[in-house]
C-alpha cells in the first residue's frame, strides 16, 4: 500500500508538504500540489480515511435512524424514500441506515448508538414524540434532525410537511365540490403529526362553521380505518366525503365502503394524504395530497450538516400538492 512517505521519496518533497498538498492546504503552491497529486495518482495512493478522520475529530458519517421498516412500510415506503433522498444532495458524508428495533436496542441509549457507530449526527424518523429514544436524542449533544417531530434546541431541529396548507387544499376542494358532511380520519394521538393535524383542524372548524366535520380514529392503519368506518356505516348513513390523513387509511375506507355496497366516487368521495405509490393503482385511482418524501430526505441531510458545522438552522415546513384522480367528484 502506497504511503505519504513513498510519495515524498518519489517527488523529493517533505512528508509534511506532501500531506498538506494532498489535503489541499492553501500554503502549498498550485504547481507543487499538481506534481504531488499526479505522483499520488500514478502510484495508486488511497487516503487513509480512518486516520484522517481521527485527526479532524470527525467520522464524516451520519446515521438515518428509523423504526418504520415494518410490513406497512412495504406499502407506504416512507422511510426508504427519505433515506434515498438524503443521497440526492451533494455532500462529503457517508450515510448509514439503522433500523431501531426495540427488541434489540431497548438497552441502548441514543448516545450509545451514536458513539458505537462513530456518527457525527443523525436524522431520526418514525418515532412518536413521547418515545424515550426521542427524549434522549433531544437532550443529546449530537446534532439531530427529527422528521415529523417538532422538537428544536441548540443541537436539534426538524423537517415536516406543511399540514396547514395540506388541510386547506383538502377542504378547499371539498368546499368547491359542494360537500358539507365530512369525516376526517386521523391517527394515533401520541404522535406529533396527529397533534399538529388536530391543531389545524380545530383552527379550521372555528372559522368555518357550515360544515359537519366528524373525526374518526383510523390510527394511520388500513385495518383500523376499515373497522372504524364499517362501524360508522352500521349505525349511520355515510359521510359525503372521507378525508383520510394517510393513504393507508384511505385503502381501509375503500374496503369498508365496498363491504357496505357503496360506490367510490358515485356514492361517496374519498381524499387521501401522502401519495404513496399504490394510491395511483387503486380502483378508482385515489385523489390525494402528495408529500415529497425525497425532498424531506434532501432537506434533512442539508440541515443536519449545517448543525454539524455549527451553522444556524431553522425548522423546515415543506410544500404539498393536490393530486386529483378518480376517487373524488362534485356533489350531484
UniProtKB/TrEMBL annotation:
<dbReference type="GO" id="GO:0003700">
    <property type="term" value="F:DNA-binding transcription factor activity"/>
</dbReference>
<dbReference type="Pfam" id="PF13377">
    <property type="entry name" value="Peripla_BP_3"/>
</dbReference>
<dbReference type="InterPro" id="IPR000843">
    <property type="entry name" value="HTH_LacI"/>
</dbReference>
<dbReference type="InterPro" id="IPR046335">
    <property type="entry name" value="LacI/GalR-like_sensor"/>
</dbReference>
<dbReference type="Pfam" id="PF00356">
    <property type="entry name" value="LacI"/>
</dbReference>
<dbReference type="InterPro" id="IPR028082">
    <property type="entry name" value="Peripla_BP_I"/>
</dbReference>
<dbReference type="InterPro" id="IPR010982">
    <property type="entry name" value="Lambda_DNA-bd_dom_sf"/>
</dbReference>
<dbReference type="GO" id="GO:0000976">
    <property type="term" value="F:transcription cis-regulatory region binding"/>
</dbReference>
<protein>
    <submittedName>
        <fullName>Uncharacterized protein</fullName>
    </submittedName>
</protein>
Amino acid at each position: 500500500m502506497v504511503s505519504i512517505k513513498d510519495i515524498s521519496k518519489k517527488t523529493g518533497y517533505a512528508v509534511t508538504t506532501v500531506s498538506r498538498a494532498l489535503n489541499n492546504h492553501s500554503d502549498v503552491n498550485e504547481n507543487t500540489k499538481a506534481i504531488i497529486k499526479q505522483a499520488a495518482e500514478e502510484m495508486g495512493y488511497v487516503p487513509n480515511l480512518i486516520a484522517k478522520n481521527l485527526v479532524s475529530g470527525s467520522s464524516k458519517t451520519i446515521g438515518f435512524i428509523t423504526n418504520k421498516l415494518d410490513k406497512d412500510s412495504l406499502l407506504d415506503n416512507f422511510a426508504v424514500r427519505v433515506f434515498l433522498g438524503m443521497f440526492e444532495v451533494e455532500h462529503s458524508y457517508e450515510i448509514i441506515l439503522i433500523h431501531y428495533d426495540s427488541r434489540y436496542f431497548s438497552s441502548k441509549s441514543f448516545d450509545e448508538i451514536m458513539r458505537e457507530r462513530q456518527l457525527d449526527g443523525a436524522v431520526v424518523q418514525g418515532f412518536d414524540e413521547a418515545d424515550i429514544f426521542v427524549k434522549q436524542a433531544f437532550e443529546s449533544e449530537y446534532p439531530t434532525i427529527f422528521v415529523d417531530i417538532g422538537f428544536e434546541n441548540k443541537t436539534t431541529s426538524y423537517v415536516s410537511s406543511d399540514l396547514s396548507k395540506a388541510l386547506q387544499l383538502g377542504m378547499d376542494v371539498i368546499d368547491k365540490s359542494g360537500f358539507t358532511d365530512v369525516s376526517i380520519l386521523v391517527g394515533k394521538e401520541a404522535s406529533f403529526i396527529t397533534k399538529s393535524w388536530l391543531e389545524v383542524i380545530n383552527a379550521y372548524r372555528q372559522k368555518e362553521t357550515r360544515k359537519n366535520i366528524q373525526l374518526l380514529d383510523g390510527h394511520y392503519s388500513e385495518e383500523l380505518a376499515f373497522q372504524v368506518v364499517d362501524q360508522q356505516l352500521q349505525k349511520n348513513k355515510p359521510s359525503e366525503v372521507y378525508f383520510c390523513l394517510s393513504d393507508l387509511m384511505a385503502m381501509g375506507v375503500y374496503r369498508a365502503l365496498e363491504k357496505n355496497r357503496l360506490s367510490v366516487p358515485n356514492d361517496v368521495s374519498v381524499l387521501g394524504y401522502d401519495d404513496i405509490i399504490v394510491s395511483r393503482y387503486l380502483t378508482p385511482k385515489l385523489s390525494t395530497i402528495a408529500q415529497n418524501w425525497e425532498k424531506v430526505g434532501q432537506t434533512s441531510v442539508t440541515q443536519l450538516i449545517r448543525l454539524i458545522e455549527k451553522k444556524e438552522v431553522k425548522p423546515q415546513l415543506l410544500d404539498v400538492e393536490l393530486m386529483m384522480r378518480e376517487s373524488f367528484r362534485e356533489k350531484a
